[in-house]
C-alpha cells in the first residue's frame, strides 16, 4: 500500500482495483442484465471510477433477476375473481359492551402475562416526518403538547407505566421489551434518540436501555411505471425504498428478533404504528381478550364513520381472514348494510395487531425462501414520484408518478392465521393519526391529534371525579381600600378546583377624561384593550378564567415607593400595568408581565397560553386514578399539561 504526504500527515491510498478483472466482471454483468432487459443499468458506468464501479457491480449481481421478473409478472396479472364475506361475528370481541367483570378479567390476564415476561411490544417506525415538514423519524415529532415530548417518549412512558402496574400485580419486576423497526432513513436517529443523545435517559421514560432494541426493515428495488425495468437513483446506485410495514416479519426473522423473543420467553406481541397519537400500548383489554380466546392473530378495529371513509376493513377473502382495502372494495359491498343499519363491511383496521410468537415462527418458516423477501408476504404496487436520473446522469425529482415501489402490508399475515380475532373499540381515545402537516381543516394533522389527546385526557380527569364540563369565567374588581392578601389566596383555591387560570391585573384606575371613562395610565389603556380582547376570544371558545383587577389611583401611586402593591412580598410591582398568573403558592414570578410585556399582543397571548397549561397542571387529581380501560395512568401526566385544557370541554366526545 502506498503513502502520500499531506501537511505532515500520512494518508494511505487504497490499492488500485485490477482493471482487467473489473472489465471481466462488467462484461459478465452486462450479459446477465441483457438477458432480462435490464442492460440500461450500465448506461452510466463510464462516469464511475474503479472503486465505484466495483461496488456497483456487486450491488447489481445481488439482484435475483429471475425471481424479480417472475414476481413482477404476477403483480400485473389479472386477478381471479375473489369471494369476499363479512368477518364472522363469533370472532369479534367488543370492548364497548363488555361487562366490568369481563374487562377486569382481560386486564388481569394481560398484567399477569407481562409480570411473567411473556409480552413484548413491537413498533413500526420506519417512516420519516417528511409530510409534516420534519426531516427526522416521525417518532421524534412533537405534536405540540406543552410537555414538548415526542411521540417516542410518550409511548415509552406508557410502556413503563404498564411495567409498573404489572410489577405491582406480580410482586416481581416486570420485563416488557420494546422492539422498534426502523428503516435506513430513520435507524441512526432513532438509536441516538434512545441511547446516545444527552437526553436519552429521559426519552426512554424510565425503560432500561437494554429493553429497547432497534432493527432495520428491508429495502426493495424501485421499478419504472411500466413495471419492467429497475430504476437508478444515481449513475452507480440502484433506486430502492423501504419494503413496507409488512417487511417486519422477514426483518424480525433475519435480524434475530424472533430468536431474541423466544430466548426471553415472550409469547404474545402487541404491534402498532408510530403515528397514532392515542395508541394504547399493549392494551391489556385487547391482549387479554386475544390470550383468553387462544388467538394466534388479532386486530383492533373501529366502526367506519361512513361508507366512503378511506380505510381498509376486516373481511374473509376466499375463506381466509384478510383486509379489504378501500381502493379495491366494490360499491356494492361498500354501501351494503345489515338489518340494524350498520355497514356489512364496517370494521375499520387501524394497524394495531396482536400475534403469538409461535404463529410468527410458523409463518416465517413455512414460506418459500426462493421468493422475494423470503416469500413471507406478497408485494403490492404503490405508484410514486421516485427521484431518478436523466439522460445526462443528473438526479432529478419528478412532478408526477414515474415509478413503482413494491410494498408489503403487515395485515397480509392474517391470511395465515388459524384462529383470527377482532376486537372492536370506540374511536374516541383510541385513534388519531399524525400524517399531514399542521393547518386548519387538515385531517390527520398534528393540530387535530393534539385536540384529540386533549379531549380524551380531559375525559379521564372527568371520570376521576373532576368537574370539567363547564367553563368558569369570573371577574372581580377589588378597590385598594378593600384589598386583602387573603382574598387572593382564597380565590386561588377556587381556581384550582375549577381548573381555570387565575389572573391578577394591576392597572391605573379609570377616570373621566373628556367625558370618557378610561385609565389615567396611557400604557394601561393599550394593555387593557389587548388583554380583554384576548380573554373575550378565549371565553367564546369555552375557555374559562378568574380575573382579579386591582385598579390603583394616580394620586396614591405615582411617586409612592411604599404603595402596598409595591411592598407586598408576593407582588412587588415596578409599574403599571402588571399582569400576574396566580396560584395557591402565589404568583409565578418568571411569568409575570410588566409594563412593556402587557403592551405586546404576542407576549399576552403566550402568557395566556401558559396560564391555561399551568392551571390544568395545578388540578388536584384524586389518588384513585388508575388504568381503568379508558387509558393509562401515564396519560394523566400529559392531561395536566394541556395547552388549552378548556378548549374542548363542550365537545360531544367529553359529555
Automatic annotation (TrEMBL):
InterPro entries for the chain: Nucleotide-diphossugar_trans, Thioredoxin-like_sf, TXNDC17_dom, UDP-sugar_pyrophosphorylase, UDPGP_fam
The keyword Nucleotidyltransferase belongs to this UniProt entry's keyword annotation: yes
Pathway(s) the chain acts in: Nucleotide-sugar biosynthesis; UDP-N-acetyl-alpha-D-glucosamine biosynthesis; UDP-N-acetyl-alpha-D-glucosamine from N-acetyl-alpha-D-glucosamine 1-phosphate: step 1/1
Catalysis performed (reactions): N-acetyl-alpha-D-glucosamine 1-phosphate + UTP + H(+) = UDP-N-acetyl-alpha-D-glucosamine + diphosphate
CDD domains named among the record's database cross-references: UDPGlcNAc_PPase
An example Gene Ontology molecular-function term: UDP-N-acetylglucosamine diphosphorylase activity
Thioredoxin domain mapped to chain residues: 492-607
Pfam families linked: TXD17-like_Trx, UDPGP
Keyword hit for Transferase: yes
Record key words, sorted: Nucleotidyltransferase, Transferase
Single GO BP term: UDP-N-acetylglucosamine biosynthetic process
Coiled-coil stretches noted in the UniProt entry, renumbered to this chain: none
Superkingdom of this protein's organism: Eukaryota
EC code: 2.7.7.23
PANTHER family (alphabetical): LD24639P, UDP- GLUCOSE PYROPHOSPHORYLASE
Family to which this protein belongs: Belongs to the UDPGP type 1 family.
Protein's UniProt name: UDP-N-acetylglucosamine diphosphorylase
Amino acid at each position: 500500500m502506498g503513502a502520500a504526504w499531506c501537511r505532515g500527515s500520512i494518508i494511505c491510498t487504497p490499492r488500485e482495483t485490477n482493471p482487467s478483472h473489473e472489465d471481466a466482471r462488467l462484461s459478465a454483468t452486462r450479459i446477465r442484465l441483457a438477458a432480462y432487459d435490464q442492460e440500461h443499468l450500465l448506461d452510466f458506468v463510464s462516469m464511475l471510477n474503479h472503486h465505484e464501479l466495483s461496488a456497483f457491480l456487486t450491488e447489481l449481481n445481488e439482484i435475483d433477476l429471475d425471481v424479480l421478473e417472475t414476481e413482477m409478472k404476477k403483480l400485473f396479472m389479472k386477478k381471479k375473481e375473489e369471494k369476499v364475506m363479512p368477518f364472522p361475528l363469533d370472532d369479534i370481541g367488543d370492548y364497548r359492551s363488555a361487562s366490568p367483570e369481563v374487562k377486569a378479567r382481560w386486564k388481569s390476564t394481560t398484567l399477569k402475562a407481562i409480570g411473567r415476561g411473556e409480552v413484548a411490544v413491537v413498533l413500526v417506525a420506519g417512516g420519516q416526518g417528511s409530510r409534516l415538514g420534519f426531516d427526522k423519524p416521525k417518532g421524534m415529532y412533537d405534536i405540540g403538547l406543552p410537555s414538548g415530548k415526542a411521540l417516542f417518549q410518550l409511548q415509552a412512558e406508557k410502556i413503563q407505566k404498564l411495567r409498573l402496574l404489572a410489577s405491582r400485580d406480580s410482586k416481581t419486576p416486570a420485563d416488557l421489551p420494546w422492539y422498534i423497526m426502523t428503516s435506513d432513513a430513520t435507524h441512526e436517529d432513532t438509536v441516538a434518540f434512545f441511547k446516545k443523545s444527552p437526553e436519552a435517559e429521559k426519552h426512554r421514560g424510565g425503560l432500561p436501555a437494554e429493553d429497547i432494541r432497534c432493527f432495520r426493515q428491508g429495502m426493495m428495488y424501485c421499478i419504472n411505471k411500466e413495471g419492467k425495468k429497475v430504476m437508478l437513483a444515481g449513475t452507480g446506485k440502484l433506486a430502492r425504498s423501504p419494503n413496507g410495514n409488512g417487511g417486519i416479519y422477514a426483518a424480525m426473522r433475519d435480524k434475530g428478533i424472533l430468536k431474541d423473543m423466544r430466548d426471553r420467553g415472550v409469547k404474545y406481541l402487541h404491534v402498532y404504528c408510530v403515528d397514532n397519537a392515542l395508541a394504547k400500548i399493549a392494551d391489556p383489554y385487547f391482549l387479554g381478550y386475544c390470550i383468553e380466546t387462544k388467538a394466534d392473530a388479532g386486530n383492533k378495529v373501529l366502526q367506519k364513520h361512513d361508507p366512503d371513509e378511506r380505510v381498509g376493513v376486516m373481511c374473509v377473502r376466499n375463506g381466509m381472514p384478510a383486509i379489504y382495502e378501500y381502493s379495491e372494495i366494490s360499491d356494492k359491498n361498500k354501501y351494503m348494510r345489515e338489518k340494524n343499519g350498520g355497514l356489512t363491511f364496517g370494521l375499520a383496521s387501524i394497524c394495531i395487531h396482536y400475534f403469538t410468537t409461535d404463529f410468527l415462527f410458523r409463518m416465517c418458516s413455512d414460506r418459500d425462501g426462493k421468493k422475494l423477501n423470503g416469500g413471507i408476504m406478497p408485494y403490492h404496487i404503490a405508484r410514486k414520484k421516485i427521484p431518478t436520473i436523466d439522460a445526462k446522469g443528473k438526479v432529478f425529482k419528478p412532478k408526477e408518478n414515474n415509478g413503482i415501489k413494491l410494498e408489503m402490508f403487515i395485515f397480509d399475515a392474517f391470511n395465515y392465521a388459524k384462529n383470527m380475532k377482532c376486537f372492536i373499540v370506540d374511536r374516541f381515545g383510541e385513534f388519531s393519526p399524525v400524517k399531514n402537516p399542521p393547518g386548519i381543516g387538515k385531517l390527520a394533522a398534528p393540530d387535530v391529534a393534539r385536540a384529540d389527546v386533549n379531549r380524551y385526557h380531559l375525559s379521564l380527569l372527568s371520570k376521576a371525579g373532576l368537574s370539567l364540563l363547564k367553563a368558569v369565567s369570573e371577574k372581580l374588581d377589588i378597590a385598594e381600600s378593600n384589598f386583602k392578601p387573603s382574598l387572593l389566596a382564597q380565590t386561588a383555591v377556587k381556581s384550582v378546583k375549577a381548573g381555570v387560570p387565575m389572573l391578577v391585573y394591576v392597572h391605573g384606575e379609570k377616570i373621566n377624561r373628556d367625558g370618557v371613562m378610561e385609565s389615567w395610565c396611557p400604557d394601561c389603556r393599550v394593555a387593557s384593550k389587548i388583554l380583554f380582547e384576548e380573554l373575550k376570544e378565549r371565553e367564546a371558545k369555552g375557555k374559562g378564567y378568574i380575573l382579579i383587577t386591582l385598579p390603583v389611583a394616580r394620586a396614591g401611586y405615582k411617586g409612592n415607593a411604599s404603595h402596598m402593591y409595591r411592598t407586598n412580598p408576593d407582588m412587588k410591582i415596578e409599574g403599571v400595568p402588571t399582569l400576574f398568573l396566580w396560584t395557591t403558592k402565589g404568583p409565578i414570578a418568571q411569568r409575570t408581565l410588566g409594563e412593556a410585556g402587557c403592551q405586546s399582543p404576542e407576549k399576552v397571548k403566550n402568557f395566556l397560553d401558559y396560564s391555561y397549561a399551568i392551571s390544568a397542571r395545578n388540578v388536584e387529581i384524586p389518588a384513585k386514578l388508575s388504568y381503568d380501560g379508558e387509558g393509562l395512568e401515564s396519560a394523566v401526566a400529559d392531561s395536566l399539561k394541556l395547552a388549552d385544557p378548556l378548549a374542548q370541554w363542550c365537545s360531544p366526545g367529553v359529555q
